[in-house]
Known about the structure:
By secondary structure, this protein is mainly alpha-helical. It has one domain. The protein is 40% helix and 8% strand. It is built from four helices and two strands, in the order βαααβα. It has a two-stranded parallel ribbon. Helix 1 crosses helix 3. The longest helix is centred in the middle third of the chain and has 19 residues, at 45-63. The protein starts with 5 loop residues before the first strand and ends in a 13-residue tail after the last helix.
Amino acid sequence: xxxxxxxxxxxxxxxxxxxxxxxxxxxxxxxxxxxxxxxxxxxxxxxxxxxxxxxxxxxxxxxxxxxxxxxxxxxxxxxxxxxxxxxxxxxxxxxxxxxxxx
Length: 102
């Protein structure tokens, strides 16, 4: 059975929270009210950040010794890009800048 390789981009909690709180970066999705039940400015960002950290720990624990074999962990904020991705996928990096977009 062939194993699926996957990647996980990690962000600092400060950056993640800032992105989440900056409402002008995205329009409120049509499902927001039904899922969250509060307006974005009333959202508990500290609790969300704790869930984000808990989820990241759970993913890393699940992959355990398979990190960098079946799971690529990168941090775009620190400049990770084609080099890490191409090494993980065992492919040549493209001859163009890595697209650091939201």
